[in-house]
Write a structure and sequence with these properties.
Pfam families: Sod_Fe_C, Sod_Fe_N
Low-confidence stretches: 195-213
Strand content: 5-15%
Organism: Sulfurimonas autotrophica (strain ATCC BAA-671 / DSM 16294 / JCM 11897 / OK10)
Helix content: 40-55%
Structural class: mainly alpha
Largest sheet: 3 strands, antiparallel
CATH superfamily: Iron/manganese superoxide dismutase, C-terminal domain
Catalytic activity: 2 superoxide + 2 H(+) = H2O2 + O2
Number of helices: 10
Order of helices and strands: HHHHHEEEHHHHH
InterPro entries: Mn/Fe_SOD, Mn/Fe_SOD_BS, Mn/Fe_SOD_C, Mn/Fe_SOD_N, Mn/Fe_SOD_N_sf, SOD_C_sf
Radius of gyration: 17 Å
CATH topology: minor pseudopilin epsh fold
Subunit structure: Homodimer.
Oligomer: single chain
Distance between the termini: 13 Å
Mean pLDDT: 88
Number of strands: 3
Length: 228
C-alpha cells in the first residue's frame, strides 16, 4: 500500500492572512509530502507495507513510526483549520465548559499549552481512554492515537508551520489559529465517540471497521486516493 498526499480541504490561499499561500505550499507540498515519501520508502518490502497508516503507528517505532505519525498528524491538522468561522456543537461546548469552566478558559489553557510546548511538537484536545477531555502536548512526531487517545483538535507548533509568516512569534500564530479552528470537524469526531460502547481507540488498534472514528479516518484515506 502506497500512502499518498491528500489535497488540502480548501484552496491554498484561503487561510490568508493567517497563513499565506507560500507557507501552505511549503508545509503541505514539501514537509508533509516528505514524511509520506520517506514512509513509503521505509515500508516497501516490510510487514508494514499492507497496513493502514493508523495500524503502522500502533505497531512501529523509530523512523517508520516518526514518518507514519507525522503523516497522520498533518492529515489531521489540515482538517482542524477552516477558512470560515465555525462553532462547536452544543454537545462539545457543554463538555468543554464542564471540564474547563468556559470556552474562554479553555482558549486560555489551550493557547498557553501551545505557547509553552518546548521545541517542536503538537498541542491537542483529546479524549483519553476513559473519555475524559484534556489538553495534551506531544513532542516531535508523538501522536495521541499511539496511546489510545482520540484527537478532536490539534495545533502544529513545529516552526515550519508558521515561521515564514510569523518568524519566532509563535503567540501571533496561535492567535490566528484560534480564529480558524474547524469546530465542525472537532464536533463530528466528538459526536461519533459519544455513540460508541467501547472506550478510546480500541477498535482502531484492532482494525475494527465498525468504529466511527475508523470511519472518519477512512474518509481521510479516501481523500488521499481521490487526490492521487
Amino acid at each position: 500500500m502506497q500512502h499518498t498526499l491528500a489535497a488540502l480541504p480548501y484552496d491554498m490561499d484561503s487561510l490568508e492572512p493567517f497563513l499565506t499561500q507560500q507557507t501552505l505550499f511549503y508545509h503541505h507540498e514539501k514537509h508533509h509530502a516528505g514524511y509520506i515519501n520517506k514512509l513509503n520508502a521505509l515500508i516497501t518490502g516490510t510487514e508494514y507495507e499492507e497496513m493502514s497508516l493508523e495500524y503502522i503507528i500502533t505497531q512501529s517505532d523509530g523512523a517508520i513510526f516518526n514518518n507514519a505519525a507525522q503523516t497522520f498528524n498533518h492529515n489531521f491538522y489540515w482538517n482542524c483549520l477552516s477558512p470560515v468561522a465555525t462553532t462547536p456543537s452544543d454537545a462539545l461546548l457543554r463538555k468543554i465548559t464542564e471540564v474547563f469552566g468556559s470556552m474562554e478558559k479553555f482558549k486560555e489553557a489551550f493557547l498557553n499549552a501551545a505557547l509553552t510546548n518546548f521545541g517542536s511538537g503538537w498541542t491537542w484536545l483529546v479524549l483519553d481512554q476513559h473519555e475524559h477531555l484534556k489538553i495534551l502536548n506531544t513532542s516531535n512526531a508523538q501522536t495521541p492515537i499511539a496511546h489510545n487517545e482520540i484527537p478532536l483538535l490539534t495545533c502544529d507548533v513545529w516552526e515550519h508551520a508558521y515561521y515564514l509568516d510569523y518568524k519566532n512569534e509563535r503567540a501571533k500564530y496561535l492567535d490566528g489559529f484560534w480564529e480558524h479552528i474547524n469546530w465542525e470537524n472537532a464536533s463530528k469526531v466528538f459526536a461519533d465517540k459519544e455513540h460508541l460502547n467501547t472506550i478510546g481507540l480500541y477498535a482502531i488498534v484492532n482494525n475494527d471497521p465498525d468504529d466511527s472514528m475508523s470511519d472518519y479516518l477512512d474518509e481521510l484515506q479516501r481523500a488521499e486516493e481521490i487526490s492521487s
